[in-house]
Amino acid sequence: MALILIIEDNPINRDVLGRRLERRGFAIRFAEDGPSGIAAAKLLMPDVILMDIGLGEMDGYEATRCIRADPATAAVPIIALTASAFESDRVKALAAGCIDFDTKPVDLPRLLGKIAAVMGTKAPMAATDQN
Length: 131
Known about the structure:
- The chain is an alpha/beta fold.
- The protein has one domain (about 5-110): Rossmann fold (3-Layer(aba) Sandwich).
- The chain has helices at about 10-20, 35-45, 60-70, 85-95, 110-120, and strands at about 5, 25-30, 50, 80, 100-105.
- Helix 2 (about 35-45) packs parallel to helix 3 (about 60-70).
- The longest helix has 12 residues, at about 10-20.
């Protein structure tokens, strides 16, 4: 079972996205901010990290750079998640070390496709998932 680490400061977003991904067969772990996300990435060695960009004191860009700087976690794929859909945000996320970028609210089929792409697997079906 693939492990996804969700680094997200909003408890509702964590809960909703976590439950939706668990229903698709993923093991889910959470971190509430950049520093705890960096520590969790090293401890858990997840298959994929979903990184909120607007985390507060240490934003997702900086947390991504820290994860990339550690040889133990440098290769873990990170997908940025943000409510901001500007091209400049995507460019900034990729420059920080994210392998992909997606917007909130999350379109689950699209996100599953991105997760599958970075993991090199087929995306689980999500067409009937509405919550």
